Amino acid sequence: MTRTRRPVAVRRTRLDRELVRRGLVRSREQASEAITGGRVRVSGRQATKLATVVDDTTPIVIVAGDDPGYASRGAHKLLAALSTFGGSAAGSAAEDAGGSRLRLRVAGRRCLDAGASTGGFTDVLLRHDAAEVVAVDVGYGQLAWQLRTDPRVAVLERTNVRFLTAEAIGGPVDVVVADLSFISLRLVLPALRECARPDADFVVLVKPQFEVGRADLGPGGVVRDVALHARAVREVADAGARLSLGVRGVVASPLPGPAGNVEYLLWLAGDAPPMPPPRLTEAITSAIAAGPAGGSAGAPAAVSADGESGSVRSEASAPCADPAFPAEPDPDSEPSTECDEGRR
């Protein structure tokens, strides 16, 4: 008697999930970075979408990137800030309100990485000779192994940065860096300020998609109006000012978010005097013009001393994106009923 063999069921799934299942990457965030960075080949062809459907027999290869040594692509965001603000030997110095040259210093200082994820920012801080980095994230098991096992790194997982305390991280830090999603920096800065020394430096990644209201989001959750970019940066700067943090500098991130949103790195400092409004407007406008959004149709709208812009509605922007309406889908995030820190 001949027994008919049943066909083997083929497992079909999203490309980003399959990369994790095969062990080609450590997390879906790394999968996103590899795919959007053009480093994934499916059946010999470059993949461009995270949701591409593949099966468990599909040939998938990840090719080497420009700098495979960093824990994540996000490292290049902080590198841009340190270069601009003088954190590296080749970097140019910023100037204070009086024209004095200043440099953002990392070497020998204790740092906090808020929203550490796989550790791109932590990696950069260590390579710039930070004495210690406290890596905090709401997730679990994401930090790259080489960073997790580094004696200079203290890992604090399953922790909402909004409720972080200096006691929880072993005392105040000298430098704070932050790359967070699904929550406004205006809601997080008070807790971060409490975790830092009075004269601490802050380098925070301003993401307009999580600072403006949902009504101002374009298709795909992308904020394309450069006037809204300016408003988002200014509102975070104003939130810092209320915490006695002055602006030292601002620069556009060289890398967009996963959906294409342009982001900005804002340098705040506890020992910096308030930046005069006209100069702050000039700094923000220059950063936008020099960044990826500089080629957008129309020049950046001028922002007045009180933060208003002729092309920006006066209604209050939402302090936190609604998790039920994620402006920029995060591959590692699950639906939540409260604002989460982001992934890197």
TrEMBL record:
InterPro entries: Hemolysin_A/TlyA (IPR004538), RNA_MeTrfase_FtsJ_dom (IPR002877), S4_RNA-bd (IPR002942), S4_RNA-bd_sf (IPR036986), SAM-dependent_MTases_sf (IPR029063), TlyA (IPR047048)
Biased composition (Acidic residues): 329-344
Chain positions covered by the region annotation Disordered: 292-344
The keyword S-adenosyl-L-methionine belongs to this UniProt entry's keyword annotation: no
GO biological process: methylation
Limits of the RNA-binding S4 domain: 13-79
Keyword Nucleotide-binding part of the UniProt annotation: no
Superkingdom of this protein's organism: Bacteria
Residue spans of biased composition, Low complexity class: 318-327
PROSITE patterns: S4 (PS50889)
GO terms assigned for molecular function: methyltransferase activity; RNA binding
Coiled-coil regions, chain positions: none
Cited Pfam families: FtsJ, S4
Family: Belongs to the TlyA family.
Protein name in the entry: Hemolysin A
Species classification: Bacteria, Bacillati, Actinomycetota, Actinomycetes, Frankiales
